[in-house]
Protein backbone atom coordinates (compact mmCIF):
# COMPACT_ATOMS: atom_id res chain seq x y z
CA UNK A 1 0.00 0.00 0.00
CA UNK A 2 2.78 2.35 0.97
CA UNK A 3 4.59 1.57 -2.26
CA UNK A 4 1.46 2.11 -4.32
CA UNK A 5 0.76 5.37 -2.55
CA UNK A 6 4.22 6.76 -3.16
CA UNK A 7 4.12 5.61 -6.78
CA UNK A 8 0.93 7.56 -7.27
CA UNK A 9 2.46 10.59 -5.63
CA UNK A 10 5.56 10.28 -7.81
CA UNK A 11 3.51 10.06 -10.97
CA UNK A 12 1.27 12.85 -9.76
CA UNK A 13 -1.75 10.58 -10.03
CA UNK A 14 -4.62 10.60 -7.60
CA UNK A 15 -5.57 7.24 -6.11
CA UNK A 16 -7.58 6.33 -9.15
CA UNK A 17 -9.08 3.04 -8.04
CA UNK A 18 -10.45 4.21 -4.71
CA UNK A 19 -11.68 7.47 -6.23
CA UNK A 20 -13.63 5.46 -8.80
CA UNK A 21 -15.30 3.30 -6.19
CA UNK A 22 -16.19 6.31 -4.04
CA UNK A 23 -17.68 7.85 -7.15
CA UNK A 24 -19.73 4.74 -7.82
CA UNK A 25 -21.19 4.65 -4.32
CA UNK A 26 -22.10 8.33 -4.48
CA UNK A 27 -23.72 7.73 -7.85
CA UNK A 28 -25.85 4.88 -6.49
CA UNK A 29 -26.81 6.92 -3.43
CA UNK A 30 -27.92 9.84 -5.56
CA UNK A 31 -29.87 8.01 -8.24
CA UNK A 32 -31.25 4.87 -6.59
CA UNK A 33 -34.75 6.23 -6.15
CA UNK A 34 -36.42 3.02 -4.94
CA UNK A 35 -33.48 2.08 -2.68
CA UNK A 36 -32.96 -1.42 -4.02
CA UNK A 37 -29.21 -0.87 -4.27
CA UNK A 38 -29.13 -0.48 -8.05
CA UNK A 39 -29.73 2.40 -10.43
CA UNK A 40 -31.83 1.44 -13.45
CA UNK A 41 -31.88 3.52 -16.61
CA UNK A 42 -35.43 4.61 -15.77
CA UNK A 43 -34.43 5.81 -12.31
CA UNK A 44 -31.46 7.62 -13.71
CA UNK A 45 -33.48 9.33 -16.41
CA UNK A 46 -36.19 10.35 -13.96
CA UNK A 47 -33.71 11.85 -11.50
CA UNK A 48 -31.76 13.60 -14.26
CA UNK A 49 -34.96 15.14 -15.64
CA UNK A 50 -35.94 16.25 -12.16
CA UNK A 51 -32.51 17.73 -11.59
CA UNK A 52 -32.49 19.60 -14.89
CA UNK A 53 -35.91 21.09 -14.11
CA UNK A 54 -34.83 21.99 -10.57
CA UNK A 55 -31.66 23.66 -11.85
CA UNK A 56 -33.39 25.61 -14.62
CA UNK A 57 -34.47 28.40 -12.29
CA UNK A 58 -36.04 30.60 -14.99
CA UNK A 59 -37.57 27.63 -16.84
CA UNK A 60 -36.28 28.63 -20.26
CA UNK A 61 -35.07 25.12 -21.07
CA UNK A 62 -31.36 25.88 -20.75
CA UNK A 63 -28.97 26.00 -17.82
CA UNK A 64 -26.79 29.07 -17.58
CA UNK A 65 -23.51 29.03 -15.71
CA UNK A 66 -25.21 30.82 -12.82
CA UNK A 67 -28.12 28.39 -12.64
CA UNK A 68 -25.76 25.46 -12.79
CA UNK A 69 -23.41 26.70 -10.09
CA UNK A 70 -26.24 27.96 -7.85
CA UNK A 71 -27.88 24.55 -7.84
CA UNK A 72 -24.61 22.82 -7.11
CA UNK A 73 -23.69 25.23 -4.37
CA UNK A 74 -27.08 24.74 -2.70
CA UNK A 75 -26.62 20.98 -2.79
CA UNK A 76 -23.05 21.14 -1.49
CA UNK A 77 -23.89 23.53 1.31
CA UNK A 78 -26.32 20.98 2.73
CA UNK A 79 -23.36 18.73 3.39
CA UNK A 80 -21.65 21.54 5.32
CA UNK A 81 -18.21 21.32 3.74
CA UNK A 82 -15.39 23.53 4.95
CA UNK A 83 -14.80 26.70 2.96
CA UNK A 84 -11.74 25.38 1.19
CA UNK A 85 -13.50 22.24 0.04
CA UNK A 86 -16.49 24.24 -1.13
CA UNK A 87 -14.29 26.54 -3.15
CA UNK A 88 -12.44 23.64 -4.72
CA UNK A 89 -15.68 21.94 -5.69
CA UNK A 90 -17.11 25.15 -7.10
CA UNK A 91 -14.04 25.45 -9.31
CA UNK A 92 -14.65 21.91 -10.53
CA UNK A 93 -18.23 22.91 -11.24
CA UNK A 94 -16.99 25.74 -13.46
CA UNK A 95 -14.82 23.32 -15.39
CA UNK A 96 -17.69 20.87 -15.68
CA UNK A 97 -20.03 23.53 -17.00
CA UNK A 98 -17.56 24.38 -19.75
CA UNK A 99 -17.22 20.71 -20.65
CA UNK A 100 -20.98 20.13 -20.65
CA UNK A 101 -21.73 23.14 -22.83
CA UNK A 102 -20.39 21.39 -25.89
CA UNK A 103 -21.61 23.93 -28.47
CA UNK A 104 -20.27 26.79 -26.28
CA UNK A 105 -23.41 28.93 -26.40
CA UNK A 106 -23.22 29.59 -22.65
CA UNK A 107 -26.10 27.27 -21.84
CA UNK A 108 -26.47 23.58 -21.15
CA UNK A 109 -29.35 22.31 -23.27
CA UNK A 110 -31.39 19.25 -22.27
CA UNK A 111 -29.51 17.28 -24.95
CA UNK A 112 -26.12 18.36 -23.64
CA UNK A 113 -27.21 17.51 -20.12
CA UNK A 114 -28.53 14.10 -21.17
CA UNK A 115 -25.40 13.32 -23.16
CA UNK A 116 -23.11 13.90 -20.21
CA UNK A 117 -25.50 11.97 -17.95
CA UNK A 118 -25.48 8.87 -20.12
CA UNK A 119 -21.73 9.09 -20.53
CA UNK A 120 -21.48 8.96 -16.73
CA UNK A 121 -24.01 6.11 -16.47
CA UNK A 122 -22.14 4.07 -19.07
CA UNK A 123 -18.81 4.74 -17.39
CA UNK A 124 -20.13 3.41 -14.07
CA UNK A 125 -21.92 0.42 -15.61
CA UNK A 126 -18.80 -1.71 -15.93
CA UNK A 127 -20.80 -4.96 -16.16
CA UNK A 128 -22.80 -3.46 -19.08
CA UNK A 129 -26.09 -4.86 -17.83
CA UNK A 130 -27.94 -1.54 -17.97
CA UNK A 131 -27.96 -0.97 -14.21
CA UNK A 132 -25.40 0.54 -11.89
CA UNK A 133 -24.84 -1.08 -8.50
CA UNK A 134 -22.04 -2.32 -6.25
CA UNK A 135 -21.60 -5.15 -8.78
CA UNK A 136 -19.98 -2.56 -11.02
CA UNK A 137 -17.26 -1.98 -8.50
CA UNK A 138 -14.14 -2.93 -10.42
CA UNK A 139 -11.54 -2.70 -7.68
CA UNK A 140 -13.20 -5.21 -5.33
CA1 LIG B 1 -33.13 1.17 -7.86
CA1 LIG C 1 -32.50 28.65 -17.49
CA1 LIG D 1 -24.87 24.63 -25.08
- Bin the strand percentage: 5-15%
Main sheet: strands, sense, barrel: 2 strands, antiparallel
Return the CATH class. Mainly Alpha
CATH architecture call: Orthogonal Bundle
The end-to-end distance, rounded to whole angstroms, is 15 Å
Largest sheet strand order: 1-4
User: Count of helical segments?
Assistant: 6
Enter the CATH topology name. Recoverin, domain 1
- Helical residue percent band: 55-70%
Ligands in the model, by name, code or SMILES, are:
calcium ion
Uncertain regions spanning at least 5 consecutive residues: 6-15
Shape: globular
Please tally the β strands and state the result. Answer: 4
Mean pLDDT: 89
- Described by its quaternary structure, the protein is single chain
| Rg over alpha carbons | 17 Å
- State the fourth-level CATH superfamily: EF-hand
SSE succession: HHEHEHHEHE
Overall domain count: 1
Which short descriptors sum up this protein?
140 residues; mainly alpha; Recoverin, domain 1; two-stranded antiparallel ribbon; two-stranded antiparallel sheet; binds calcium ion
Structure description:
Helices cover 63% and strands 7% of the residues. Helix 3 (41-55) packs antiparallel against helix 6 (110-124) and helix 4 packs antiparallel against helix 5. The strands form two sheets. It has a two-stranded antiparallel ribbon with strand order 1-4. Strands 2-3 form a two-stranded antiparallel ribbon. It contains six helices and four strands, in the order H-H-E-H-E-H-H-E-H-E. The protein has one domain (39-136): Orthogonal Bundle (Recoverin, domain 1), CATH 1.10.238. The radius of gyration is 17 Å and the shape is globular. The chain has 140 residues and is mainly α. It binds calcium ion (CA) (3 copies). One calcium ion is lined by residues 101, 103, 105, 107-109, 112.
